[in-house]
Each structure stands twice: as structure tokens, then as C-alpha cells.
Design goal:
Helices cover about 30% and strands about 25% of the residues. It has 13 helices and 18 strands.
Length: about 400
């Protein structure tokens, strides 16, 4: 047995024939003396098991050999994990499906990963935006959120069916929205704002997708979701705030009558550019709470100056802003005025910012400065910040802890 230490990458290999073929994989693992010793040290460790096929073992073979220090059988197996979040310690046990033989045990610090290996090579899965990871997520070479457990479909609010498409008209400003209705007529409303699109022809699809994502992330009953399709490319960035604002004012003044419901509370949820919109709305209007994920663009002068240096990275809104104001390098002020960095004070309602810490390079370059500014706010309603260690741009809607925080936030 090779033993290095509890929190180092590879700890030990043990092969033990357990013989009790009627036992489940977790029980088999717990019969191992090394696992028993681990559980004495970490009695609150959370256990989980999943079956991994021989093909998955083969894909992860180089990593497993490195971890286990021995030849690994290329056969269907069970992967059992014991995770202790407070100490960030994770024990992994591999058991042959047919032999009921423990053939590998190793311990890692949770969040530790080999980013030179693909997610599959690390025996993981890349969950999509309508799935959650039942287990630890780590960065890999092909994804920032490699799930070391199983990807399960988000069930969210089962009382909400398919949405209806409506036209919002507030004092002459029109926009499309999708409404997800519960059975109850006495509701709380989540007004949802999608992220950046490549073309305004995509806003209907993005609004529907955003509604589906929120539906699957929020479990509270009697929630009505109104997902807004606000325009982006037909005007200068920031001018589309008018449509985003109209959706909120319509919800406050007209939605009860037009939708036939009684609204108790209104929450705003936005992703990416949608996070920009709900944060900016929070400087003007009181609601019952705001959730903003991966907010941006934080600083258009920074972002658009990069585009001028490397046209291959160009965002459509930077082209339009340059035509209106000239270079972001020589004339940054109008860019900054439209940026989220100019809306970091005067928040009217409590707000939860969520940010995956493996987001894109531009976002990660600007997030610390934005966080510093909002933390320094002296006239803001309560601000909560949730940083998701290994999360990407949309991690708030797949990370179990963050989704629980969002549900607690609106409850």
C-alpha cells in the first residue's frame, strides 16, 4: 500500500477481495479498513456511488494509473466517493462491478484537478444547463465544470407547464415575453432577463431558454416566471434598457389585470447582459430582490479596447459604439458611462451576485474591481456575493449550492 497523506493528490492503492456479492457498492466500500479509518476522521462525509463503464475506465486510464500506481482492470466498475466539504477532502473508491473487489482508493483535496486532461479522462461528465451535478465539479482541459458525479435533470418547479408567449405593451414600448403560470392565481413573480445574443433574431429563443433555466432552478411553489425578450443589436448598447425597464413597470402596473393574477412579490433574475439589466434596474426601482449572474459587460472601455487591438474578438455592440463615439482607447468616457461599473451604488433592494470563477478572461479580469466597488457601497440595500470556485459563465444555474442559495433568497 502506497500512502502519502490525507490531502495530497494520490494517496494509496489497495486491492481487497470482499466476497459479499449481495452488498451494494457503498457498503462494500465501507467494509474496507482504509475507508473506515477515513470515516472516523471525517464522520460527516457525504457518500455517493455511480456505475462507470469499461469504456469510461479506458478513457480515464492514464489518470487512474497515476492515482492508483498499478494496473487498472478495464471492466465495468462502481465509483464511490466520500466528500467532506468543510475540509475539502474527497476519498474516491473504485470497485469491480462483478468481482466486488476494491481495486483503487485515493484521496484528493476537493477542487484539485489536472487541467491537462479532458473531463472524460478524469472520469467526469459535462452537464448541460438543464442538468445539475450530483457531486464535485472540477476544471478540465475541455470544460471548466467537469462533474465527478452524475448529471441529473433539473426538476425545478413541477407545477409550471409550458409557457405562453405574450406581447407586453407599456406606454407604447413593446416586447415579447414568455409566461410560465402556476395553478394558483396568487403568485410571486420572477422577471427573467437572458444574456447576450449574436443577433436579435435569437432573442425569442434565448428568452424561452432563460425561462426554462429559471424554471428548473427555482423550486418554490406559486411562482410565475415572465421571461423577457429584450432587443440588443438594433440600438446602441444600453439603449435597450428602455425595453427592460418597460417589462418591470408593466409587471408592476398592468400584469395583474392582463394575466388575471394577484402578485404578492416581484423578483428580478438576470444572466450576463441580463444581469447588467437587473442590476441597473435595481438602482431605480424597488422589488423584493434581485439575482444577477455573471454580470456584464462590466467595463465597455476595457472590452472594446481589446476588440480594437484584436478584431477577431469583436463584439457587435463595440462596433456600434465605435461608430458613435470613436475609439474606446482615446475616448473611453461614453463607454464607461454605459458600463455596469457606473451602476455600483444606490441599490434599492437586496441583491445576490453570483459569479463562476472560471468564467472568461475578460470577465475574470474585471470582476475583482467590480466586486470591490459594490462592497464599498454605503447607500445600497444588502448585497450577497456567491463566487463558484470552478464554475463557468452559467454555473449559478447548475451548481447545487448556488441554486439552493437562490431558492433561499426568494423564500
Amino acid at each position: 500500500m502506497k500512502h502519502v497523506g490525507w490531502v495530497c493528490c494520490s494517496v494509496f492503492l489497495v486491492i481487497v477481495l470482499l466476497g459479499c456479492t449481495g452488498q451494494g457498492p457503498i457498503t462494500v466500500a465501507k467494509n474496507d479498513p482504509s475507508v473506515q479509518s477515513f470515516l472516523k476522521d471525517y464522520p460527516g462525509a457525504k457518500e455517493q456511488s455511480m456505475m462507470v463503464s469499461a469504456s469510461m475506465i479506458q478513457k480515464a486510464y492514464p489518470t487512474l494509473v497515476q492515482e492508483c500506481g498499478s494496473q487498472i482492470p478495464l471492466k465495468d466498475s462502481y465509483r464511490v466517493t466520500f466528500a467532506d466539504p468543510p475540509s475539502k477532502t474527497l476519498m474516491t473508491v473504485f470497485i469491480g462491478k462483478e468481482s466486488k473487489q476494491v481495486y483503487c482508493i485515493f484521496i484528493k483535496t476537493m477542487g484539485q484537478a489536472d487541467t491537462s486532461s479532458t473531463c472524460a479522462q478524469q472520469n467526469g461528465h459535462a452537464c448541460n444547463t438543464l442538468q445539475k451535478c450530483d457531486g464535485e465539479t472540477i476544471p478540465a482541459s475541455d470544460t471548466n465544470a467537469c462533474c465527478l458525479g452524475s448529471c441529473t435533470q433539473l426538476t425545478g418547479n413541477s407545477s409550471l407547464g409550458e409557457p405562453s408567449q405574450i406581447l407586453i405593451d407599456y406606454e407604447g414600448t413593446e416586447l415579447t415575453a414568455f409566461v410560465y403560470r402556476p395553478d394558483s392565481k396568487n403568485v410571486d413573480v420572477i422577471l427573467a432577463y437572458h444574456g447576450t445574443v449574436d443577433s436579435d433574431s435569437q432573442i425569442i429563443t434565448f428568452a424561452k431558454n432563460m425561462g426554462d433555466i429559471v424554471k428548473n432552478a427555482i423550486t418554490k411553489e406559486n411562482i410565475m416566471i415572465i421571461s423577457v425578450a429584450y432587443p440588443q443589436h438594433s440600438m446602441l448598447f444600453g439603449d435597450n434598457f428602455k425595453e427592460s425597464e418597460a417589462a418591470l413597470l408593466w409587471t408592476k402596473s398592468n400584469a395583474e389585470t392582463e394575466l388575471g393574477v394577484t402578485i404578492n412579490r416581484i423578483f428580478l433574475v438576470g444572466h450576463s447582459q441580463g444581469g447588467y439589466m437587473v442590476t441597473r434596474l435595481n438602482t431605480l426601482y424597488e422589488t423584493d430582490g434581485v439575482i444577477a449572474n455573471g454580470v456584464g459587460p462590466i467595463d465597455l472601455s476595457f472590452r472594446c479596447a481589446l476588440d480594437e487591438k484584436d478584431p477577431k474578438t469583436t463584439e457587435g455592440y463595440c462596433v456600434a459604439l465605435k461608430e458613435a463615439y470613436g475609439s474606446a482607447v482615446t475616448n473611453p468616457d461614453p463607454y464607461i458611462q454605459r458600463s455596469l461599473i457606473s451602476f455600483t451604488s444606490g441599490y434599492k433592494s437586496k441583491i445576490l451576485f453570483t459569479q463562476g470563477m472560471k468564467d472568461g478572461k475578460v470577465q475574470m479580469a474585471l470582476w475583482p474591481g467590480f466586486k470591490e466597488k459594490i462592497n464599498a457601497c454605503t447607500d445600497c440595500a444588502p448585497i450577497t456575493i456567491r463566487e463558484i470556485p470552478n464554475g463557468g459563465h452559467g454555473a449559478a444555474f447548475t451548481d447545487a449550492e448556488t441554486m439552493q442559495l437562490m431558492n433561499d433568497f426568494i423564500s
